[in-house]
Backbone:
């Protein structure tokens, strides 16, 4: 199964997209902010990352 890390601070968007992607067969790992997203990336090494460019704790444009 392909894994996907979705980093999004808006709970409604994150949950809706997670459900839609799971329906398509993806394993979805979710994170509500950049710092937890980086931690989950290191733990799980997903196949793909989708992230919000304007997160509250860091920009999606920088490391």
Residues:
């Amino acid at each position: 199964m392909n894994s996907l890390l979705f980093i999004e601070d808006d709970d409604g968007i994150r949950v809706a997209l997670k459900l839609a992607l799971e329906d398509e067969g993806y394993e979805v790992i979710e994170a509500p902010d950049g710092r937890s997203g980086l931690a989950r990336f290191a733990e799980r090494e997903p196949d793909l990352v989708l992230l919000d460019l304007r997160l509250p704790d860091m920009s999606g444009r920088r490391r």
